[in-house]
Amino acid sequence: MNKESANSLTARIVIGMIAGIGLGLLFKAMLPKDGDLIIPLGLFDFYVRGFFVDGIFEIGGQIFVTSLKMLVVPLVFVSLVCGTCSLTDTSKIGSIGGRAIGLYLITTAIAITIAIFAGLLVAPGEGVNMTSEVTFAAAEAPTLAQVIIGMFPSNPFDAFAKGNMLQVIVFALLFGIAVALAGEAGERISKQFEDLNEVIMRLVVILMNLAPYGVFCLMTTLFVKLDPSAFANLAAYFFTVLGVLILHALLTYPTLLKVLTGLNPIIFIKKMRTTAMFAFSTASSNATIPSTLNTTTKKLGVGNSIASFTVPMGATINMDGTAIMQGVATVFIAQVFNVDLTVTDFLMVIVTATLASIGTAGVPGVGLIMLAMVLAQVGLPVEGIGLIIGVDRLLDMVRTAVNVTGDSMVTVVVGKAEGQFNQDVYNSVDDTRGDRIDFHHLKDK
Ligand code: ASP
Predict the structure, then answer these.
(1) I need a labelling partner for 119 at 20 to 30 A (CA). Which of 61, 94, 138, 195 fits?
(2) What is the pLDDT of residue 139?
């Protein structure tokens, strides 16, 4: 692939996205509504809904997301084993993990605190009269002890099969340490892993280059199905969450990055574009891991030994965007149900939301399950979730983009602090590095 076309991967994804949204809205306007009997099984409806929306586009979109997920476990395992055994001093794992977890928790707590303040300031639920028929059962928030014990796999293959990221991380770290300590045998295995990593990263780039089509399909089906009437009562809630998400991404992260590393935050935001779009269209931090790893290592200059550890960990335990939704949603639901929350309640919300985010994976919609835990913790009716569910999908997409931006920011900070960071790569204007598929050596054969 030549440079010019590689340059346009981000542009092509944007085009795919806009075209998908446009086509989705067009289909929506043309299709008979459900229950509308004017042309119930007309040819147009049959072809558009059956052949395109539920057919080609649904298949294309799902294959795209599934293929990204397919890469996650092998990619995380192989790159983390490589990363660990290339660390000259494996005792550094403690300080890398400590810094990353500390920053992840702090940024989440900041996020939810801003969200609660914004919710109290805007009061999106004041005077809103809504009822909901949706019933919800809240699962218990896990205790810290459960979270820690749950990180250790009794069977690594089970962890792989279930895609339990924290367990995969722990196994990969232990395996990598053993490889580093195993002398000659370790060296041989480590070379094999390096080669395997190279191959898997190539697969990542191939898939990333198919993203414009996948994103196009995903957006088309999503926008046909979106229900605009859900937004009527929820505009204040929707825009409060959106506003705080944007503020967090464009103000909190750049400020933290500048203060903690001295790096130019504008470069960071610019280079996050492609990954943020992956997150936006898949609504899954987990499915975005391949792109986040690619961006942090190839474009932002963080060493693989750091990024392969902090990125998958962040996708699992760091969900600032989700915490923002939970903060505003808690205030909104309390206002709708006329419940006064005390300062202790709000502190409880902050602690529960932060802990819940550790135990739940980054997949679409999981934020609502965590919200149920938070609401139950402060005695708010869990049915309140039914009120906001109508606009949640769109917010899920935006907050996932914020979640992965947070993971990447922390990765850069830890990489720099640990001396595993290449400032020239970070500063380079070529932000397509890592997006290209190089076919030259195939042609030479
Ligand atoms: N979809 C989000 C993520 O994958 C989680 C959520 O907020 O539902 O990061």
Answers:
(1) 138
(2) 65
pLDDT at residue 259 tops 60: yes
Separation of 440 CA from ligand 1 center, angstroms? 38
Across 310-325, average pLDDT: 91
Does residue 320 carry a pLDDT above 60?
yes
Select the more confidently predicted residue: 131 or 325: 325
For residues 353-368, give the mean pLDDT.
Answer: 76
Delineate the domains of the chain, giving CATH numbers in brackets: 3-444 (1.10.3860.10)
CB of 265 within 6 A of ligand 1: the answer is: no
Q: What is the CA radius of gyration of the chain?
A: 22
Q: What is the pLDDT of residue 169?
A: 86
- Indicate the Cα dihedral angle 195, 179, 409, 302, nearest 10°: -50
* Dist. CA 402 → ligand 1 center (Å): 10
pTM: 0.84
pLDDT at 204 over 90: no
**For the residues of 96-154, what is the DSSP string, one character each?**
HHHHHHHHHHHHHHHHHHHHHHHHHHH-TTTT----------PPPPPPHHHHHHHTS-S
Q: How far is the CA of 268 from the centre of ligand 1 (A)?
A: 22
Rounded Cα distance, 276 and 175, in Å: 31
Burial class (CB in 10 A: 0-12, 13-18, 19+), 7: middle
CB distance 400 to ligand 1 below 6 Å: yes
**302 beta partners:** 421
CA distances from 389 to 137, 159, 231, 359 (A): 15, 31, 10, 22
Q: Is the CB of 60 under 6 A from ligand 1?
A: no
- Residues 352-360, mean pLDDT to the nearest whole number: 75
Give me ligand 1 centre to Cα 132, in Å: 23
Count CA atoms within 13 Å of residue 349 on its CB side. 32
- Name residue, tokens 């580093």: 180
Atom of ligand 1 nearest to the CA of 288: 4
